[in-house]
């Protein structure tokens, strides 16, 4: 069987969680953390990540109901906020906290909550400039209407930043959110306000009562690069090494032709594993502590690498696609740069296809 392994360091995850807390502490120590574990915790495995963070955070955030169901069925008892799902039945079945982004959705939840005889906590999403989901018509009035629905308890009011790296625009989004907050404060419902993702954490005014970090927990942020530890390492093994003369074409389309006698390695990973085709002739991998280039077009299941500068390498040698080895390091940011995408896509793509192995936190 081929090796394609994502090693997930849960100690690094906890470290990153504490880094988030340390950033919050001097500004707003009571700010709660909603740990975002959608998309299988950005490819790190939502169940393991949630187990490691449970009891440390206020709640978990997932995109869809089925993700929450998996967490519940794995014994996760914490609050789970479902960001993007308007299904009603499962919310009650799994004891979840839905994000309401539409009045009709709130009505349907209220109806079911009455039937079940429970008071359902919900977070209401309002539009402030993301242009995706959220109440955009008279948000405060709508919140008031929702607050009056039977068996609905507004526990939170949230929005989402669309361009946190842009200070001016983020300030405007925060201003819009503050305006809604001011109006809602007259309604005597006292919800938890939250707007910030990982990037927004650099703006003290964006913190409100809670934040929703995802990427930062997994070890990535432009602003806190030194403080964070990437949690995911992806490795494979060389399945063949071939000594080819100058002028040999490599892979589909002959996009690479050896310029000299070369040692070409073959690794059993390709775009079907989330190792993007865009990485063709661009990416590097680490072999025996040395960075070597990907050569030729990345195939569906195979990729070629140039081992000429690592002459003593052997079949079955480990190849690091993502992570550290010796003095060398390849980050999700590096891969994202080569593939012209963002680290989010790198982690979700590579992490969800590789076989995961966990480095556990020490029991305390
Ligand atoms: C994904 C997501 C987050 C987390 O974003 P990061 O940039 O990973 O911190 C927060 N809130 C919502 C609504 C999201 O969809």
UniProtKB/TrEMBL annotation:
The modification N6-(pyridoxal phosphate)lysine is found at residue 38. GO terms for biological process: D-alanine biosynthetic process. Pathway: Amino-acid biosynthesis; D-alanine biosynthesis; D-alanine from L-alanine: step 1/1. It comes from the Bacteria. Its cofactor is pyridoxal 5'-phosphate. Residues 231-359 form the Alanine racemase C-terminal domain. One of its GO terms (molecular function) is alanine racemase activity. It catalyses: L-alanine = D-alanine. Keywords: Isomerase, Pyridoxal phosphate. Its EC number is 5.1.1.1. The keyword Isomerase applies. Catalyzes the interconversion of L-alanine and D-alanine. May also act on other amino acids. PANTHER family: ALANINE RACEMASE, ALANINE RACEMASE, CATABOLIC-RELATED. Belongs to the alanine racemase family. This is Alanine racemase. The lineage of its organism: Bacteria, Pseudomonadati, Nitrospirota, Thermodesulfovibrionia, Thermodesulfovibrionales. The gene is alr.
């Amino acid at each position: 069987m081929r090796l394609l392994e994502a090693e997930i360091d849960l100690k690094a995850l906890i470290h990153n969680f504490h880094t988030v807390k340390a950033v919050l502490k001097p500004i707003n120590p009571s700010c709660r953390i909603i740990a975002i574990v959608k998309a299988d915790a950005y490819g790190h495995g939502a169940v393991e990540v949630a187990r490691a963070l449970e009891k440390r955070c206020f709640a978990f955030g997932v995109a869809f109901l089925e993700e929450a169901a998996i967490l519940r069925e794995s014994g996760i008892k914490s609050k789970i906020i479902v960001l993007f799902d308007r299904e009603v039945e499962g919310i009650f079945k799994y004891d979840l906290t839905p994000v309401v982004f539409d009045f009709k959705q709130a009505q349907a939840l209220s109806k079911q909550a009455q039937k079940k005889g429970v008071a359902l906590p919900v977070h209401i999403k309002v539009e402030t400039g993301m242009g995706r989901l959220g109440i955009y018509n008279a948000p405060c009035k709508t919140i008031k209407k929702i607050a009056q629905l039977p068996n609905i308890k507004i526990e939170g009011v949230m929005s989402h930043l669309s361009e946190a790296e842009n200070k001016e625009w983020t300030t405007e989004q925060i201003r819009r959110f503050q305006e809604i907050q001011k109006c809602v404060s007259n309604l005597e419902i006292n919800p938890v306000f939250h707007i910030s993702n990982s990037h927004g954490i650099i703006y003290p005014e964006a913190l409100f009562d809670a934040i929703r970090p995802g990427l930062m927990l997994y070890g990535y942020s432009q602003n806190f690069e030194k403080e964070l530890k990437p949690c995911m390492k992806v490795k494979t093994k060389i399945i063949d090494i071939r000594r080819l003369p100058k002028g040999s074409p490599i892979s589909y389309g002959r996009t690479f032709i050896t310029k000299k006698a070369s040692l070409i390695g073959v690794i059993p990973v390709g775009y079907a594993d989330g190792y993007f085709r865009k990485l063709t002739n661009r990416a590097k991998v680490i072999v025996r502590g040395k960075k070597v280039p990907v050569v030729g077009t990345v195939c569906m299941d195979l990729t070629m690498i140039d081992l000429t500068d690592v002459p003593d390498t052997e079949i079955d040698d480990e190849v690091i696609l993502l992570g550290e080895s010796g003095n060398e390091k390849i980050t999700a940011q590096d891969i994202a740069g080569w593939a012209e995408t963002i680290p989010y896509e790198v982690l979700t793509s590579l992490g969800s296809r590789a076989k995961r192995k966990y480095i556990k936190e020490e029991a305390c």
